[in-house]
Automatic annotation (TrEMBL):
SUPFAM superfamilies: Cytochrome P450
Gene Ontology annotations of biological process type: cholesterol catabolic process
Keywords: Heme, Iron, Metal-binding, Monooxygenase, Oxidoreductase
Keyword Transmembrane: no
Gene3D superfamilies per the UniProt record, alphabetical: Cytochrome P450
Organism per entry: Actinomadura spongiicola
Protein name (database record): Cytochrome P450
Example GO molecular function: cholest-4-en-3-one 26-monooxygenase activity
The organism's taxonomic lineage, starting at the top: Bacteria, Bacillati, Actinomycetota, Actinomycetes, Streptosporangiales
Length: 415
């Protein structure tokens, strides 16, 4: 049954919507067509405007001085929003690049920027390709059948980003579990618990780990990103413990969870579209375009929120000062006015103006690294792949923020 506009808007505040592609895209297509800037009043949430058209999302992103990340950077219940504000006042809240606006955003972003520039990425690429080979070899070791999402896709980019940070491999499994608990707080398989206290404890566990790392890197600096963060200075002063820990959290979590979602979702798309798999294997020069198509197709980041600093008219709708807006990236990336046949998976799509990395001053710091990782993995896998099929139903994580497939059972033959 086709949803009403009200139901379509409410779906965006329901984590289970994002675990059901058909339901999600039916709701988003309706909103794009009939109410591109749509008022959502969902139970337990402060009302917000859902922005679903590509051009409107870009307009908001361009006007970063008018539409701020603070105080509501991601969709959360009114109770959780209030709790986060109280934590921030006490100086114990998460304060990442996602939470910041200029001038803080510009200054803090510069701390890690050099580590993600093209020169640094070229230096890192041999390690990325070494790890890609390790995990394709791991598929061979698994005997031709595995849960690709859990046994391969989550581990490869995790090793890359935590190697960049300089963390020991003995801590990687701990980081994976904490990341899944943080981003999977609405998913029955990943959440540590449902209470506010249990969700807060996940964050405190992250902070405790990274505060120890900060102290170690300040005592004995090393040549890694963790040392750059630990020893960074703002106006001559070192970062406080929570700002340093927050920086580690965003690098360690967003730096691998989004990429693992793209790799798992990209493989699923190739399985579901065997003509595109054959096309890519026959034309490996298409790989850079294919990587961006996988990123568009999956869109791991589902939304960011913005808050208006003054009244503003967007797509004929008056947004009032202090109103919240939800920028729907899965919707923008399937906008019929921007993409030719947006529901067709096309490894040669060009141009591909997807917004999966955001736009403007908040454009994803790790976008180049994500592209290198996805490309390296599939350039290692596809020449060795002789057959692949689903071995069971895929399942997606329930979330309103970051996610993708949590299970992808596959059966395959590799040379």
């Amino acid at each position: 049954m086709t949803p009403t506009l009200e139901e379509a808007g409410l779906a965006l505040a329901d984590p289970k919507t994002y675990a059901d592609d058909e339901r999600l895209h039916e709701a988003l297509a309706l909103l794009r067509r009939d109410s591109p800037v749509h008022r959502v009043e969902a139970p337990d949430y402060t009302p917000f405007w859902a922005v679903t058209k590509h051009d409107d999302v870009m307009e908001v992103e361009r006007n970063h001085d008018l539409f701020l990340n603070a105080p509501r950077p991601v969709l959360a219940t009114a109770e959780l929003d209030q709790m986060n504000r109280e934590r921030a006042k006490q100086g114990i809240g998460l304060r990442t690049l996602v939470h910041m606006d200029d001038p803080d955003h510009r200054v803090f972003r510069a701390i890690g920027a050099d580590w993600f520039r093209p020169r640094a990425m070229r230096a890192l690429e041999p390690r990325v390709r070494e790890l890609a080979k390790r995990y394709v070899d791991r598929m061979v070791d698994l005997g031709g059948e595995c849960d690709f999402a859990q046994e391969i896709a989550v581990h490869f980019p995790l090793y890359v980003i935590l190697s960049l940070l300089g963390l020991p491999e003995s801590d990687f499994d701990r980081m994976l579990k904490l990341t899944q608990e943080l981003f999977g707080g609405d998913d029955d398989d990943f959440q540590r618990g449902t209470s506010k206290e249990e969700k807060l404890q996940v964050l405190l566990d992250f902070f405790a780990y990274f505060q120890g790392l900060t102290q170690a890197r300040r005592t004995t600096p090393t040549d890694d990103l963790a040392s750059a963060i630990a020893n960074a200075r703002i106006d001559g002063e070192p970062l406080n413990d929570f700002d340093a820990a927050s920086y580690y959290v965003i690098v360690a979590t967003a730096g691998h969870d989004t990429t693992s979602a793209t790799i798992a979702g990209g493989l699923h798309a190739l399985i579901e579209h065997p003509d595109q798999l054959d096309r890519l294997r026959a034309n490996p020069d298409l790989m850079p375009l294919a990587v961006d198509e996988m990123i568009r197709w999956v869109t791991p980041v589902k939304e960011f929120m913005r808050t208006a600093t003054r009244d503003y008219e967007l797509h004929g709708v008056t947004i009032r000062k202090r109103d919240s807006l939800l920028l729907s990236y899965p919707s923008a990336n399937r906008d019929e006015d921007v993409f030719d046949a947006p529901f067709r998976f096309d490894v040669g799509r060009d141009p591909n103006k997807h917004l999966a990395f955001g736009f403007g001053v908040h454009y994803c710091l790790g976008a180049a690294l994500a592209r290198i990782e996805v490309r390296a993995f599939f350039e290692e896998l596809l020449p060795r792949l002789t057959s692949i099929e689903l071995a069971g139903p895929p399942e997606s994580i329930a979330t309103t923020f970051v996610g993708g497939l949590k299970r992808l059972p596959v059966r395959y033959s590799l040379g």
